[in-house]
Write a structure and sequence with these properties.
The longest helix has 8 residues. It contains four helices and nine strands, in the order βββαβββββααβα. It is of the alpha+beta class and 126 residues long. The strands form two sheets. The protein has a six-stranded antiparallel sheet. Helices cover 18% and strands 35% of the residues.
Length: 126
């Protein structure tokens, strides 16, 4: 199970890369393996400001549809449009080409609520 130590994680199985005042967000290797083959990623919240843990989109796999929750309050500033044509990138490269959105966050203190790699490993029993 790939759980990069430089990333932060949520209890909803999303990963977060902090870059200045911007976050890149995707779903974890564990999440994509549990979901199975990803067939569609929908994010219709670009340019919207959402509160922490609001739904920002959905990911559809062969066997289920799962909501995506914003890890901190902020504005969705970009969607990875490559996923429209190649949603399988979430399966093949969840921490790279399979990223989902970029968020300009508004409350840095919320970052402290994110899980470390070790905390996330404990959550999933890895």
């Amino acid at each position: 199970m790939n759980i990069p130590s430089e990333l932060k994680f949520t209890k909803d199985h999303e990963w977060v890369r902090v870059e200045g005042d911007t976050l890149t967000v995707g779903i974890t290797d564990f999440a994509q393996s549990e979901l199975g083959d990803i067939v569609y990623v929908e994010v219709e919240t670009v340019d919207e400001t959402l509160e922490i843990e609001e739904v920002f989109g959905t990911v559809e796999a062969v066997k289920t549809v799962s909501d995506l929750f914003i890890p901190v309050s902020g504005e969705i500033i970009e969607f990875n449009e490559a996923l429209e044509d190649e949603p399988e990138k979430v399966n093949t490269d969840p921490y790279g080409a399979g990223w989902m959105v970029k968020i300009k966050f508004s409350d840095a203190s919320q970052l402290e609520q994110l899980l470390s790699a070790d905390d996330y490993k404990a959550l999933i029993g890895a």
